[in-house]
């Protein structure tokens, strides 16, 4: 029996909340798969964020495997992550994990690009809170 090769997995986030650092550190240290967090550092809400310097610290020393991109928030709700498309094209990830937020416009384009490149796509969501009746519910 042959062992399956380690997978390169990208977790695409808009920003890294401080409370997620321990989880992302554990993933960054994984020897089973290579997890990389791709995110910006700008937020649309008031929340404590991960220290940007964690990108420069080895995961074994408490840092993160983190590729920083630039967030551009539009009309308060919509997000475009500059650098995301180039990063997922340049880095040969096997799997891309996105937050399932319909307002993250670059996610839609990145999902199509990832599918065209044969990547496995996973949408990380909370599920439905309530039934939507408008265009949001249709999407």
Question: Which tags fit this structure?
Answer:
139 residues; alpha/beta; 5-stranded parallel beta sheet; two-stranded antiparallel ribbon; 4 helices; 22% helix
Chart the SSEs and their pairings.
Layout: E1 8-12, H1 21-28, E2 34-39, E3 66-68, E4 70-74, E5 78-82, H2 84-90, E6 95-99, H3 105-116, E7 120-124, H4 135-138
Parallel strand pairs: 1-2, 1-6, 2-3, 6-7
Antiparallel strand pairs: 4-5
Helix pairs in contact: 2-3
Q: Helix fraction? A: 10-25%
Mean pLDDT: 92
Radius of gyration: 16 Å
Largest sheet: 5 strands, parallel
Distance, first to last CA: 43 Å
Shape: globular
Description:
- There is one protein chain.
- By secondary structure, the chain is α/β, with parallel strands linked by helices.
- It contains four helices and seven strands.
- It has helices at residues 21-28, 84-90, 105-116, 135-138; strands at 8-12, 34-39, 66-68, 70-74, 78-82, 95-99, 120-124.
- The protein has a five-stranded parallel sheet with strand order 3-2-1-6-7, sandwiched between helices.
- Strand 1, helix 1 and strand 2 (34-39) form a beta-alpha-beta unit.
- The longest helix is centred in the C-terminal third of the chain and has 12 residues, at 105-116.
- It is globular and about 45 Å long.
- The relative contact order is 0.18.
- The model has no long low-confidence stretch (mean pLDDT 92).
